[in-house]
Amino acid sequence: MKVIDAKGLVAGRLASQIAKQLLSGETVSVVNVSDALVSGTLKYEVGRLNSLKHQKSKQDPERSPKYPRIPHLLFKRMVRGMLPKKSSRGREALKRLRAYSGVPVTVDMGKAERYEAIAKRPPKSTTLGAMCRAFSWEPAA
Questions:
Q1: What DSSP element (H or E) covers 91?
Q2: Which of 31, 59, 72, 128 has the fewest CB atoms below 10 angstroms from its CB?
Q3: Tens digits of per-residue pLDDT, 14-67?
């Protein structure tokens, strides 16, 4: 099982790397997802997520896409978008992903990996945690 520390990494770039690893058959745990970066100002990202949240299907509003407000679930959805979720291979790959907003006691941080190649901070960026806090997410104490 691979453990990846997402603190300070760009979430989309990290999600693409993780999707490749999941498709190759590895089990991946991602910690500190709430500290992962999203390129764009907080105002822009909140507006973008807000517009996605209000999209409804005219045929059946209950079947509209759902966007989570919790950072680790939002990150898991990012990875899901990079997997072939309609095939059994993609669904099985998504089951091998574990994402955490902080660092749980069950994960050994001594084996955690850092991807320095994608650690370049964009000029205008915000964290996933700040974006979710704008949508009334309260981190656990």
A1: helix 88-95
A2: 59
A3: 999 999 999 999 999 999 999 999 988 989 888 888 887 788 888 888 888 778
Coil, strand or helix at 62: helix
pTM of structure: 0.87
Nearest alpha carbon to residue 45 among 138, 131, 121, 119: 131
d(CA 43, CA 112): 32
- Ordered domains of the chain (ranges, CATH): 2-56+63-133 (3.90.1180.10)
Indicate the range of 18-32, 77-91, 123-137 predicted with least confidence. 123-137
User: Rounded distance, CA 97 to CA 14, Å?
Assistant: 13
Question: What span, in angstroms and rounded, lies between the C-alpha atoms of 36 and 138?
Answer: 17
Cα–Cα distances in angstroms (integers) from residue 141 to residues 5, 16, 80, 102, in the given order: 20, 30, 28, 11
